[in-house]
Amino acid sequence: MRGWERAKFFVIRHRTGLAVWVLAIILLLTPLVVNNPYNLGILNLIGLYVIVVLGLNLFIGYAGQISLGHAAFFGLGAYGSAVLTAGYNFPAWPAMGLTAAVLALVALALGVPTLRLSGHYLAMATLGFNYVVHGVFVQWDAVTGGPAGLSGVPPLSILGFAFNSDIKFHYLVWTCALAALTLCLNLVRSGVGRGLAALAQDEVAAATLGVNVQRDKVQVFVLSAVFASVAGSLYAHYFGYVNPDGFSIFKSLDLVIMVVVGGMGSIWGTLFGVALITILPHFLEFFETYMDIIHGLILVVILLFLPQGFVSGLVDYFRMRVAKRRLKLGAVKGNTSL
Amino acid sequence: MRVSKNLLEISRLSKRFGGLPALSEVSFRAARGQVTALIGPNGAGKTTLLNCLSGVIKPDAGEILFDGANIAGMSAPRVARLGISRTFQNLRLFPRLSVLDNVLCGLTVQAGDSFLEALLRLPGLRNRERRLKLTALEALNTFGLADKAALPAGVLSYGDKKRVEMARAFVSQPVLTLLDEPVAGLNPEETAQIAGLIRQMRMYGKTMILVEHDMEMVMGVSDQVVVLDGGCRIAAGTPDEVRVNPLVLEAYLGRMSLTA
Lengths: 338, 260
Ligand SMILES: Nc1ncnc2c1ncn2[C@@H]1O[C@H](COP(=O)(O)OP(=O)(O)OP(=O)(O)O)[C@@H](O)[C@H]1O
Ligand SMILES: [Mg+2]
What we know:
The structure holds 2 protein chains of 2 kinds. Chain A is mainly α. Helix content of chain A is 77%, strand content 2%. Chain A has one domain (19-307): ABC transporter involved in vitamin B12 uptake, BtuC. Chain B is an alpha/beta fold. Adenosine-5'-triphosphate (ATP) binds at residues 17, 22, 40, 42-48, 89 of chain B.
């Protein structure tokens, strides 16, 4: 009896960590079931986007901001690694680190002035940033290879072990994705995370409680840029080539849609949002043809009916309903309980 | 060093909004461990004064000496760090966070704000979080909210929300707490509850500035009353002195009775 109680207590107390471990074991075993390269490729793509969208969701859902330019960070990460390794024979891991560090500074330079302004300035600024970056990818032939892009990007390797197949990359990308997931879960369960959730709901109240609103927003923006950069580097090494197509403003919109489907501020919902939006066009031809229209519809419908996003919107809705029911039924004592 | 009896000394504080004065050279002091009430008719500038004190807005001129240091124009998070907390006239809770998390937000300064430490969830942070949670639960107990800790703050009744905001303001053991109309919109029973809590906090040695329209409540809990009208200080003194001050009666004439 005591042992059972203790086990229950352990599970409740470590539920987040345990959930990550369960997911890790599932992903470890997935290649036994999903073993054709096509499906593994989709799963790898999901892993890559999970890293980007986790960061973006912190920024949108926790810091309460908007970015329409995260495909630019993703692309700059990919091009940074591609140019440095394929063009200049730079070793791959330091190239990834260097690219991420530079992009952190870019995000800082972009975030400090724009995050001070409220309203749509940030959306405009990030959109413009994406537009310019995409233009550079297309136009700057000498370095980026123009519309054709760059090829010959070597696979990543650790101590001579190269991640040069779909199944090997599966383990690499999901290790990174789970690391990103853990970092995000850590952040949101800390005082800093509470401060971010607070400032997303009421900046004035958050500030009077000691939340450094401005600085926290910039920090999350920088973090999300670094996540996107690392995912971009992984992308370049996985496919072996990069071209401008995947990094336009439309990709940025797709990333925002993934956040919205997963739900603002829902770390676990992000997995669902990314998976759904990535898988749909691959399994339903219909979706591929009308992808933009359908994405637009998904965005509008969700934001109209569940402004918090799909998954977390539903969770919130039921949480509120259950809470109201409990209050009404008197399961919770009235306010005379002083 | 001599510890001054006054925790707060405001002198000649002024603030204009688009040319219209909301505060004109207001001066007063708040003694340590006492409740200083700030009263006055609608639009007198009471909330504006609290906003200046808490760093929500910057005053145009004047000094705010808090423990001897001028904090006029300081940013809100820095003011919070000095141990000044507040509640708001129109509730400012975080409706989607649980009641417990709302109160934990009151411990933002104590939780630390290192991003890296939070990302890595180092053991020190884990232990600190556990301690903070206990502190927050204790505060919920004090404010009669223990059984509602897990509910989203948005679903609570108005009276409960008011108390969550107070718990959030007091959980950090603040040096000074600013309460903006804590009983506005509450029924007499709830009002008595809040008055009791304010008295309890005073017994714990807390210094408070209380903005309130409910005169019975003000007269019952305050040590000192400052009266504002049209942005100017028109009177100050003990509740009994202020009650019979002709200037105060005139300011309120036809607007509210001071017979309480
Ligand atoms: N942010 C602002 N912008 C412009 N005018 C403001 C602002 N805040 C307050 N005012 C004006 O300043 C004056 C004082 O307002 P304040 O809110 O301080 O009054 P108050 O004493 O708190 O009144 P009440 O009892 O109604 O809460 C009012 O005339 C109000 O319209
Ligand atoms: Mg007011």
